[in-house]
Every structure is written in C-alpha cells, then in structure tokens.
Amino acid sequence: MKRREFLAASVAASAIAFTDSQSAHAQGTTAGREFYMLQRYGLQQGPQGKLVESYFSDALIPALTRMGMGPIGAFRLDIGPETPSYYLLIPGALEAVATLDLRLAEDAAFLKAADAFWNATAGAPAFLRMESSLMSAFTGWPKLTPPAATAAKAKRIFQLRTYESPSHGEHVRKVEMFNSGEFDIFVKAGLHPVFFGDTLVGSRMPNLTYMLSMTDLTELDAKWDLFRNDPAWKKLSTSQRYAYDQIVTNVTNLILSPLSCSQI
C-alpha cells in the first residue's frame, strides 16, 4: 500500500473510531458532515506576516480551490494570547483534510507559487511553529456557513471559542447540549454561527471548537446578552442533564479578523 493511501486509511479509521466510541450519542454517524482542519501559524513580528499572507493568497488557497475544497477561512488574531498569529480553516471530506500536505507536495503549480514559504531556511523561517487540529462537524450544524457580510467583503469579526471538558463523557454531553437546542438560541440572538467542530485529533482534548461572526465587538457583546437572557437558554442550561456537574472546565476565547484573501 502506498504511503499516502496508508496514512489516509489510518487517519480515517482512527477518527471514525473515536467518533463512534466517544460521541455516538451526541453526534450520530459521519454521513453528510464536513471535517475541518484548523491551523494556527505562530509568527514573529516582522516580515513573517507578509510572507504567510502571500502564501495563503497566492499558493495555498488557489491549490485548495483546485482540489474542490472551500470556502477557506484565513484570519489574523486580534485579541488573544500568542500574537501575532494567523489561523486557517479548511473544510472538506475526511481523507482530503487528513492527507492535505501529501497532496500539496504533488501539486507542481502549488510548489512553484509557494516556494518562498515552503522552502524557507532555518536562518529566515516563514513561521515559528504551526499547530493543527482535525475536527468533525456537529450533527446539528453539518456544514460551514459563511456570514452574509463575506460576499460583500463587508466589515466583520469572528469569535473562535474552544470548550475543554474534564472527561470524554462530559464532552459528549456538551456536544449533545448544542444539538439539543443551543444552535437555535444562537441564531435567535443574532450570533451568526460559522461552524461547530468536535476535535478528533489535536491538543488539550477532549474539546470542541466553534466560530461566530458579527460586525464588531459592540454588536457581539449585545448579541451575547440576548443569548444569556433567552428563556430557552436558561431552561436548557439549568436542565438536570447538563447542570448536575461542570461539563466545561476551560474556555478559550479569541477574536479574529479576516485576511483579504479569506473566503469566509
């Protein structure tokens, strides 16, 4: 078996096995749901930001588009730890996202456009370190949904939130909570959900990550107030099934802005 085929089969088997064993009650089957690769590029102040942004716009996003993947999100971290950092969100089928680097290495047009980034030397690195996580979309929100402002390239920010749970059982229960009515409360409050992902491979597991979009921080805060005060949220969050224990023990909250090349 070729290395690429072996890797694809191994990652697919591991991801599906994890989903089946840890999230069966909350997620159901994987049919009809996207998978996401979320990447964080840690940078130094200086020329790295321009080089990475050029890599995204001139090489990586065009290559992903040729592969039929998208829309691709490319973001700058505005509020959060470890700035400067850029984030990339790639939706697609499991094999496509899991074997992405192998496929890119076989794309001659990509390698030519990406040369300055792809072959950067130790003396002048393109980035400090890149971290990736592989996620499966939630049953109740199976596809990435860009905000309406994306098409018009209008002003927008993105809130990226990660919830860490103390155990696999508590994590499954939190995912179930989203699928049991929380999505509707987000939409009713005017918080535009972009994606919800259950982490299959990544750090600080078990956890889930989701993204919301709004015009600015003022509107974001106002919509969150509507969410917190919604009677449906109060009922759901105080339900004995979800309130008997602390099912989320750490929350990471980041504010991102789209790069000019972002398709989200």
Describe the structure.
It contains 11 helices and 8 strands. The protein is α+β, with helices and mostly antiparallel strands. The protein has 2 domains: 1-8 and 32-137, Alpha-Beta Plaits; 146-254, Alpha-Beta Plaits, CATH 3.30.70. Strands 1-3-2-8-5-7-6-4 form an 8-stranded antiparallel barrel, surrounded by 4 helices. Helix 8 runs antiparallel to helix 10. The two termini are 37 Å apart. Residues 6-28 have low confidence and may be disordered.
Strand order of the biggest β-sheet: 1-3-2-8-5-7-6-4
Mean pLDDT across every amino acid position: 90
Characterize the quaternary organization of these chains. single chain
Radius of gyration: 19 Å
Count of helices? 11
CATH fold-level topology of the largest domain: Alpha-Beta Plaits
The main sheet comes to:
8 strands, antiparallel, barrel
- General shape: globular
The H-and-E topology, N to C, reads as: HEHEEHHHHEHEHEEHHHE
The count of β-strands is 8
CATH class of the largest domain: Alpha Beta
Beta-strand content bin: 25-35%
Q: Summed up, what is this model?
A:
The protein is α+β, with helices and mostly antiparallel strands and 264 residues long. It is 43% helix and 25% strand. The chain folds into 2 domains: 1-8 and 32-137, Alpha-Beta Plaits (2-Layer Sandwich); 146-254, Alpha-Beta Plaits.
Keywords:
264 residues, alpha+beta, Alpha-Beta Plaits, 11 helices, 8 strands, globular
